[in-house]
Amino acid sequence: MNGLDQVFVRLCHWFAGLFPASVQPLIACIVAITAIMVVFASCFALTTIVERKVLGRMQNRFGPNRVGPWGLLQPLADGLKMLTKEDIVPYSADKTVHFLAPLALTVPIWLAFAVLPFGRNMTAVNFNSGVLFFFAVGSASELAVFMAGWSSQNKYSLIGAMRAIAQMISYEVPLVLSTVPVLMLAGSLSLNDIVAAQGTYTIGGLARWNVFTPWGLAGLLLFLIAATAESNRSPFDLPEGESEIIAGFLTEYSGFKYALFFLGEYLGLFAITGLAVTLFLGGWHAPFQWLEWVPSWLWFAAKFGALIFLFIWVRATLPRLRLDQLLNFSWRFMVPLCLINLLVAVAWYWSGAWKSVVAMPVRWLLCAALIALPYHWLGRALRSASQSPRKYIYAE
Amino acid sequence: MHGVGIIKGMIETARNFAGSYTDPERLITVQYPEEKLPPVENARTIPFLVYDGVDAMAGLRCTACMICEKECPPQCIYIVKDQVKKPDFVGKLQVQPKVFDIDISVCMSCGICVEVCPFDAIKMDQVFELSTNDRFGGLLVDKTQLAKPNEYFVKLHKTEASEIDARREEEKQKAEAAAAAKAAAPKPTPAPAPAKPPAQAPAAATPPTPQTPAQPTAAPAPAK
Fold first, then answer.
1. Most CB atoms closer than 10 Å: which of A278, A359, B70, B144?
2. Where are the domains of chain A?
3. How far, in whole angstroms, is CA B15 from its chain's centroid?
4. ipTM for the whole predicted complex goes beyond 0.90
C-alpha cells in the first residue's frame, strides 16, 4: 500500500481538513462529486475521439485527424459546434417534457457512479445495497427515453422510443440476472464487499476474480451483451436505426439537448462498464500478486479502458439486428442462459467442498459442460427460430 | 458452434486495426489537400479555350462561330464577336471572340461544346478546386482566364491531343503546299482554290458574306 495508491484519498482528506470539522463530510462529498464528474466528462470527450479513430482504423481509414495534433482537439470542436447550434423545439411538442427528458437521462446516470469503487478506499458512497441502487437509478434512463419520444410529437421519435423501451426492458432482465451469481457467492449487495471477495490470490499468484470461473466467464459475457443492449450501442442500436426511423427518439433534439443525450448514453456505458469491472474483473485488484504495487485506481482504469475498447471493437464488427431478432435473442437465449448460469454457480459453490486431487479439473469440466451444452442447444433453437419465415400479426 | 462467425469477424477487424499501423498500404484514404491523386485522362470538369504559341489572345483557336453558345444546354456560354480579325494557324483571317464568358456555376460539364466545336478550340479541363467566396464574379470566367496553351491540353488528354495535333499539322502542310502552288502559279486566286478542296478555299470566300450561315458549311471540312 504505497503512497501513490492513496494519493487521491489523501488529497481529499487534506482539502477537507482545511475546513471546520462540522462541514468536513460535506466538503469531502463535494470533492468526490467534482472528481467523478471531471474524470468521466473528460473520459466522454476522450472516448468520442478514440472511438472514431479506432472505428476508422478498423475500417482501413484514418479517423478524424484534422483538428489539432492527430485530431485530438476534435471533441472540443464538436462541443463548440453543439453549443452554438440552434436549439429547436417542435411547435406541437410538449415543451416541459421535451426540456426535461435530457436532464432525466443524464442526472440519474451520474448517481450510478456514486457506488462504484474506483480504487482502494475510493468509493464515493459505501452503500450496503450498492448493486440494487445502481440498477434502480440505471433503469431511470428508460423513462427519459420515453419522455423524449413522447414529447417530440413525431412518429419516428415515438417508434424509436417504443423500440428503445422494448429493448431496454428485455435486456434489463438478463443484465440483472447475470449479476445474481456474483451476489450469491459474495453474499453481499455492497460493491466494496464484492471487490473484497475477489481480492485473494491462489497458490499460483493468480487473483480469484469471478471471471476465472466458468459461471463468471459466462456471466461476464452475458452481462456485456446485455450492457451493450442496455446502452443502445451497436449491434443493438435499433432505437437510432437511421435506415428506418431517422434517429429514433433523438430526431427532434438539436444543439445542447442532443449533446446531453449523447453524454447520457456514454455515461451509461461507462457506469455499466465500471460495474462489469467491479463484479467480474476483480474491481481495482491486480491480476497477480506480484503486481499489487501498481496503484489500484490504475488497475481499475486499465480494465475499464480495455472493456470500452471491446465495446468499440464490437461496434466496428457487427451489423445492426432486426427488432424481432433482438427480442428473440433476449427472451429465448439470454434469459434462459442466465437462469442456467445461476445453477452453474450453485454447482460451483457446492463442489468447492470436494477434497481430492482430481476435484479441480472435474469441477471445472462439470460446470463448463453445464453452461456450454445449454448454450449449444439454445443457440440451435434460436437459429431455427430466426430462419423460419417471419409472421406478421396485424392489429384487428 | 454458435458465435464463431462473430469471433471471425472480430479477428478480421482486429487485423485491420493492427495492420493500419504496420502497413500504410491498407489505408486507402488520400489526405486530400496535402496529397492528390494524379488525374485520370478521361476526367473532365469545365471547358477551357485552347491557344497555340505564346500569346494567349493571338493564338486563340476560337473563331467565335457561336456553335457552342447555341448548343450549350444550360446556356452558360456568352460570346461577342470582335470586328477585328486575326490569322489562324494556316494564316487565314478568322473572326475572333471579343467576349467569351462561361458561367461555371451554371455549366453542367456535359462536354457538348467540345463535341460540336469544329476548330478544336474548346476542350474539357480537369481543374476542380473552383470554390470562391465571390458567388457571381468569381464563377464567371472570361476568355483570359479560360485560355490555356495547347501544351496544357496535351498534358491532360494525351491521346486526343496528339491526334488533333497530327491532323492540324497535316492541314497546315497542305495549306503551305497550296500557298506555294498559288505563289508558283501566275494566275490569280480563283484557279487553285477549287482544285484544293480542304478548308481554306470555301472559307476564304466566307469573310465578305455574313458569317453565321457560312461557318457551318466550312465546319465539316477540318473536322474530317
1. A278
2. 7-380
3. 47
4. no
